[in-house]
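EI: anyone free to look at a 144-residue chain?
SC: sure, send it
EI:
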Amino acid sequence: MKPSHSPFVVQPSRSSLLVWMLLCLIVALVLAALIIQPALAQKKLSAAAAKDHVGEGATVCANVFSTRYAASTKGQPTFLNLDKPYPNPVFTVVIWGSNRGKFGTPEIEYRGKRVCVTGKITEFRGAPEIVVDDPKQIRIEAEK
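SC: here you go
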């Protein structure tokens, strides 16, 4: 009788197949956790509470008290100052000039509105902020 397979092809054992299946399952679970975790971890915070969550992803909701498009400043940032006007905002949203086109005229559109901003909270000169690069990160809340 002839063997049913070539002598040069190595047939994996059941234990090695189990190890590969387990490894694939672990990799799939890790990837799923990396994708799902940021969405689940989004906390909804006030502008004042954001200072205690630097380095975390969150949604910060507050009123836009003042805005400024600094067209002649390096990077051409637009600032949305929440809860208090510049120079003492409680929280700042930054839109860099390279992304400004996606937002239209944010210094006009968001001024005086209540917004919720989602992203990673960072700190600049001791003040909390979120740098946004997509309009989906800013949601205008309905008037109450």
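EI: The mean pLDDT is 87.
SC: 👍
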